[in-house]
Every structure is written in C-alpha cells, then in structure tokens.
Amino acid sequence: MAIKETMAIEDAAVPDAGGAWTKAQPWITTAGRVGLAGVLGYAGWAKVTEPPALQKLAVSSYQILPDSLVAPVGFGLPILELVLAVLLLLGFGTRFTGAFSGLLMIIFIGGIISVWSRGLSIDCGCFGSGGAVEQGQTRYLQEILRDTGFLALAAWITAFPRSKLALDRLLGLYKD
Amino acid sequence: MSKAARERTARDRLAEERKRQAERHKRLRAIMVTLGAIAVIAVVVVAFVAVQSNRDNTDGYQGPLAPLSRQADGSVVMAKAGVAGPVLEVFEDFQCPACKNFEDVNGDTAKRLAAEGKVKVIYRPFRLFQQEPLKSNSQRAANAAECAPADKWIALHDLIFKNQPAEGSKGFSNKDLIGWGKEAGINDAAFEKCVNQGEKNSVVDQATQYASSAGVQGTPTLNLNGTKLGDDATYTQAGLEKAIQAAASAPAPSATPSATPSKSN
Q: Which of A6, A10, A59, A60 is the best mutation test for B, with the most CBs of B within 10 A?
C-alpha cells in the first residue's frame, strides 16, 4: 500500500550530518506549506469570486471535458484549491494534501500542454479570468514553468511532511 | 543458551514488538488523518458545487416576447411599445464562447425584463474575430442574422448560439444557417438567397465599425445607458436585474417612464 511505502521513506530520515537538516527541514516544509497555501488560496479566491458562468467558460475553453463535466469541474476546482490551501496552512494531513496539490499541478500542466499542442489560444485561467485570448497573446510556457515551480513545492512537502506549526504534530504525526 | 541470554532475547523481542506496535499505531494515525482530510475536502467541495449550481440557474423565461424591430443600422430592438429606457445594448459575436455563456445565463433574463417593460434591449451582433476560421464563421452567422425578419430574429439568434461550433473549427455553414432559419420559422426564398450570397455582409461590416467606434474591445459587451456592465451583471441573473433596476431608478434624462405610450420604434 502506498501509505506504508511513504511512511518508510519518512522513517528512514535523510542521512544527517550534524542535526542541521533535522533542525532546518521542518521549518523549510512549514515555509513551503505557507507558500503553496498562498498560491492555492489566491488562485481559488480569484476564481470563486467570479460569476459561475465565467468559471464554466474557463474550463470549457480547454475543450477537453464533455459538457456535462464542465460545470462540476468549474465550480469544484476553485473551492478545492481553497480547501487544500486551508489544510496546508493548518498542516492537517500534510503529506496527503501536499501530494494532492502536486497531482493538481500535474493535471494543470497537462491541460496547458494539451491546449498548446492543439493550437488553441486561451488564458489558462489559473488565477481567474480564463477563456479565449488573441492569437499571440498566449503565455503557455510561463504558465507551465510557474506550475512546475508549484509542483516542486508540493513535491518537497510530500517528501518531507515533518514540519513546525502543524496540526499533524498535535495528532502525533510527522514528529521529530 | 544461558538464562541471562535468554532473558535478553526475550526483552529484545518485547522491545521489538513494542516498536512494531508503535509503527502500526503511527501508520493507523496517518491513515486516519488522511481519511479525515479526504472527508473534509469531499464534503466542502460537493456542498459548494451544489450551491454554485443552484446560483447558476437561469431564468427559464418562456413567456411572450416584447416586440422586435430592426433599426436602420441593422441592429435589432426588443422593447415594449413606449419603453425608451433604460437601454441595454448587447454587443456580441455569434462565434464567441463567452457570448454563448452570457446567452445561456442571461438571455432569458433580458427577454423577460424587456417583456415586462423594464428595459429596452438593442442587439448589436458584429464580427469580433480577425482570424480564420473564426472570422468567416462569425461573418456568415452575422450575415444570416441580418437577413432574418425582425420578428423571427431572436429565435434564429438563439439557435445560432445553441449550435456554436467549437472554437477553432469551421462551422456556421450557410446550409446550417438556412436550416436553423427554417426551424425559427423563416421559410422564404429571399432569406435563403440573402444567406447564400452574403447580401448583408456590408451591414455586418458597418456593425463591426460601429462596435469598434463605441469602444467595444471584447464580447460580450453590455452597455447599459452607455456604461459597460461588469462581470457580475453580465454573467449572473441577479446582477443583471439589479443593474437594470438601478438604471431605471437613476434620474436618466432620456429615460422617461411611459405615461403616454409613444411609438418609438
């Protein structure tokens, strides 16, 4: 089972020279949690405050999902991002929320690559206001690089879920 | 094996067993917390999607429409006799996906408010897109809409949006447009000829120039008494209704409530 395997990684602990890693890593992960939560929170908020029709438009402009799935995804994605942001900020289920966020980033990157390869001209709608843009106004490479950065952040959190100021710690998880 | 050695192995085994148990507990905790996180995510997301879907409901107005008439510049007015304002100008491109979203959400709202005499709607379809195949799609659809008699216009307009081709693919063939015209109740040969020969292409060009001179940069653009409406008013039913109400109660010099019905169009 996946959990077993990942637990093993955690328990193996990274080879430690003189405790510097043990001291620094939890704080780095905490910073990563706050950073990723900020990104997801901002992205979710920017979308969720838009009218539902625009949330659907942003999704349908990718021309990937069937019509019946456009509304649930369009409405669900922003709130999912917000919930993940809150959980990351609280440090609840850190490894899972980190992995979930990473998976989301992989999906986003895949979506942008798909749109790019089909020659469509859209804004990724990552931070709201998606939909068609003029040809030559696309920013796919920047969008992919940005999401890759966020993916790296999520990967770090998933690999090293031990962190300070986390609810998990109170629940006896990912302690020093 | 000596007794002491045996005791030590027993102790070791016990310690090992304890360690394993601690591991198991830890694993269990990790699973419980993960399940908790999944539960939180699932409940909040599902509840929220339900709320949003509800908010996304459209008007569903099926009642009679306000009279439709075509103005000299090719635009189409939908208003009850004597209603001079507030004036809602709808700039749209038949190929524009956001316009379809606007029509899906608020097309019925505009019809109902016009039928209730609360607003005078002016539809100003034009050609926004500059690149192929969108440009030709837009042009053919706008031409066909110009060819349609005013009283059947809104039905054709709705059918064109309903059948909007995916962005980037060729669509709105003249044959399809004539078919939707029939569906909308336009059966005369003049319409067919007008569509096939692009007879109203120059009117579409004029409408496009008008839109650009009116400062329209994207579609849909909704101007209420000349002021561009924001996203909330454009894409939510409550938003549009509120904006129109506010415009009606604002002291606009041009908007005289119809005490004496005057044939304005």
A: A60
Let me know if residue A15 belongs to a domain: no
- Cα A107 from chain centre: 10
By Cβ distance, the residue of B56, B98, B131 closest to A131 is B98
Report residue A147 as tokens.
């999401």
Q: Cis (ω within 30 of 0) for the bond into B220?
A: yes
Nearest CA among A146, A36, A160, A147 for reference residue A87:
A36
List chain B domain ranges: 1-54, 68-249
Q: Count contacts between A and B (CB, < 8 Å).
A: 112
pLDDT in tens, B54-87: 877 777 888 899 999 999 999 999 998 888 889 9
Element (H, E) at B171: none
Burial of B251 (0-12, 13-18, 19+ CB in 10 A): exposed
* Number of alpha carbons in the 13 Å side-chain half-sphere of residue A62: 25
Q: Which CATH code of 3.80.10.10, 3.30.1330.60, 3.40.50.620, 3.40.30.10 fits the domain covering B68-249?
A: 3.40.30.10
Mean confidence (pLDDT) of chain A: 89
Q: Over 90: is that where the pLDDT of B8 sits?
A: no
SS3 state at B70: strand
* Contact yes or no for A91/A168 (Cβ under 8 A): yes
